[in-house]
Amino acid sequence: MSSNGTGYDLSVTTYSPDGRLFQIEYAQKAVENSGTVIGVACKDGVVLGVEKLIESKLMERNSNQRIFNVDYHVGIALAGWKPDTRQLVNKARKESQDYQSFYGTKIPAHVLTERVAMHVHQATMYWHLRPYGVCALISAYDEQGPQLFMVEPSGTSWGYHGCAVGKAKQAARTEIEKLKFTEMTTREAVKEVARIIHLVHDPVKDKDFELELSWVCDESKRVHQLVPKEVKEEAEQYAKEANKDDDDDDDEEDEDEELVDSGAQ
What we know:
Number of domains: 1
Mean pLDDT: 89
Strand order of the largest sheet: 8-1-2-9-10
InterPro entries: Ntn_hydrolases_N, Proteasome_alpha, Proteasome_alpha-type, Proteasome_asu_N, Proteasome_sua/b
Organism: Acrasis kona
Number of helices: 6
Subunit structure: The 26S proteasome consists of a 20S proteasome core and two 19S regulatory subunits.
Protein name: Proteasome subunit alpha type
GO cellular component, one term: nucleus
């Protein structure tokens, strides 16, 4: 047996000679085959955006939900294997309800993240289970202010100012790093998140998509909810115009380079 996966991927509890758990890596591949999901923390809230791929032209709009409410102040966006998302959302909601019932107060974002991460990690510790094929972005507005966390299929959790997962995560992260979202309002960030998702979507290789946006911010009274229809439409219009201008600039640069080359000849 070698460390390329042969023989070592039959159980999630079996390490390869170089210390890898291949089933977790396979779960991560399921996430990377999903639509891009973006989360950014702003000065007055958190914005989540999802590139919701349309599997069939016959499918009804808004039926393939990728952003969910966990509690009034907490939302979650998921990339990866769709059936697993429902289980993880139900687990997050149960943890939130149990905390509220026991302590009489809303669950802090970092506590919810730790409990969800432990549940995900538990699925990697027993041979009769398989890892969750999803990656979760958790947004919240609690006593600590706007919070954004990510839980990976391995059960690892991180806190972020901005992050992206899914098919075009690297391109999306590059665009996020160019902007200072911590100095933006959520209204400004919604436009930029929409622009990035439209930018990284490849209309040639990828299926059509529907943009899903949510926020939890001062404007929403610190309640997680989908972005209002008029704000979403404004953001999509901004995204299309901004990306069209970028394409026009690229075409002009290509034409200038061709003229320079022809002059040199």
